[in-house]
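input
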Amino acid sequence: MNLTELMVDLVKDGLKHDVRSFQMRARRVAEASKDNNPELAKAIIRTLKTTPTRRQPAEWQPPSSQRPVDQDSRQSLVREEESVVANKPHWDHLIGKTIKEFVFERQNEQKLVSHGLQPARSLLLEGPPGVGKTMTARWLASELELPLITLDLTTVINSLLGKTGNNIKSVLDYARSKKCVLLLDEFDSIAKRRSDDSDVGELKRLVTVLLQTIDDWPHTSILIAATNHGELLDPAIWRRFDNVLHFSPPNKIDVVRFLTDREVGQKTANEIASVYTEKSYSSLERMLHKAKKAEVLYGIDHNESIRQAFGLKSQNISERDARNSKILKMHSEGLNKTQISSQLGISRPTVRRVIKKWQEGDNNA
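output
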């Protein structure tokens, strides 16, 4: 970016009362001026260091300080979670590396800003349903200890097209006014190609507003858009985001890793991966939840409940007896439950259950 562009952006920040961004751009102007006008560069840096930051005028308030609502129904346009707790999703190597770098930049935001640099502000997540896009947004909010704000499309989409545009603008303004993670799920429904003749002018103008908003998004909050249909997005959308991540369905190795991380035995995990056809982490999570309920309600063995949930053949009595004998033998030799679980490829809850049943005098664990 040349000096002229920097100066124009500096003026914009001043007009928007964005003090932090103004300071950042002023440092960049000083950096860009130090060769041709060193005196100007020194004067800018000196002024930044010696001039106290003035509070914004009391009469000026962000236009979106209140949670946005639809003007007709008075229903909230967003779902907001102040304390997000989320498990780390499963990513391939490239996605994991990008997410790690994104988090590192956000955690070192002040260091970057002090050198006239901005941390990454936006992510576009593209891929089929159930592969971890929403989970990624939740995990990022949890990791960075920020509230997660999710656009509620059912309320936002108003039968009156002009109201839809106003609703989305209200949500964007609200998220810009505070430190948060804003998730625009089903992004293709509001950022469709402007060349689509089936859409009217109001929706096409909305895409233009979205493009401008992404360009001007403040570094104080994070914008995440997720779509199952990347082919529907306006081409200009893609290059506006700092990072674009393409999610793919899990392969067999991914399925095994996902299951073993959730206390499924190695053998059972391999069997599930060999027959699993739904190809989404969310469906795997649903089946594990179903198995857990069967285990609690009917007292079914942990591994057996998982096999039943995924439609695998039950282990016969001799296999179970042999397994139990190995567990008890290793237990009597002084191995702890974690060591037994690791060496036999059996989940820790199963090991604990067998030992507990044996201690209670019941050998039919």
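quick obs: The longest helix spans residues 281-298.
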